[in-house]
Amino acid sequence: MTLAAGSRLGPYEILSPIGAGGMGEVYKAKDTRLGREVAIKVLPEVLASDRDRLSRFEGEARSASALNHPNIVTIYDIGRTDSVSYISMELVAGRTLREILAEGPVPLKRLLSVAGQVADGLARAHEAGIVHRDLKPENVMVTRDGHVKILDFGLAKLVPQQGFDASEFPTAIEPTRPGVVLGTVGYMSPEQASGKPLDYRSDQFSLGSIVYEMAAGKRAFSRGTAAETLVAVIRDEPEPLQSFAPSIPLALRWVIERCMAKDPQERYAATRDLARDLAHLRDHASEVSAESVAGRVVPARRRRWLVPALLAGLLLAALLASFAALRLRRETAASPNAVRFAISIPPGTTYSPGEVSRGFSVSPDGTRVVIEA
User: Fold this and answer.
1) pLDDT, tens digit (0-9, with 9 covering 90-100), for 325-353
2) Is the dihedral of CA 358, 364, 367, 370 positive or negative?
3) In angstroms, rounded to a whole number, what is the distance separating the alpha carbons of residues 68 and 74?
4) Dihedral, CA of residue 45, residue 50, residue 55 and residue 57, to nearest 10
5) Looking at the annotation, which residues are catalytic?
6) Residue 41 β-bridge partners
């Protein structure tokens, strides 16, 4: 069912079409009561009689309206007019991530900003017990100023808070039957592609696939047919990211690989932790890039002492070189005038206070080496 500009749907006046997807057509409309522009999502007439599809459509509104987060689209209203079911939601001006990806790999700074915002929105949904289940570039909107909105909770399903059995928790829609696959091929998790029970970690896999694509400029899983792609999601590993994006920080590669682990147990225990990792990488992009150039990733706990240790080693090397040079000069030149100077002892190097050896001594407070030549 196509709505013409100027037609009415309840209190909404249709302005123009925006797009269409598996769960309905989307129009730009005006709320005549409040005088604001909104997005109207309409379930196609041919599917309106499908009770399962209609249930999922209404479940989208219930799930998304329960969330209040700057990175999740706001649901205003749900209605039904002349057998047409619709959802009124926030109108987001911008482009989908799919449109952005059409331009090629996403620059690191923008990639981390988008990924971090999506993870933050997902973390909020997961904390409320809601799994998106259809996260893909088409469902991520990016505004002109870089703000991200997650769209379309059309396949959303309430799951228990961590620690409960999903099979014993009431769902917002009809429970997925064993063997039934819902989602988008290429972005769904292995457990989702297999028709198995899933939880919030399935969304982590989908986000990992999206971030991989942003970095590499190509999909993580893409085969000749949908069936072959499903098999690849279940069995195959994506090509190493460094083959396509060698400049991507190793720390980010590690995050992506963890999200895309075949076993959900190997992913993040909480999506909030994933959001924090991405936020840290975003806020320290220049540092992690430098680590990538160096060819290694240094864990945060080690980075705290690595720099002091390197400086200590350099200072100690300089100290020993100076001492050797002075001894050589004393022995060869046989100067009658002794020269004394002090150098601070590098952190991590210990001498006993007052210790005296040939050519140098330690100050009483143990902080400096006094060299005599």
Assistant:
1) 555 555 545 444 544 545 555 555 555 55
2) negative
3) 7
4) -30
5) 134
6) 26, 87
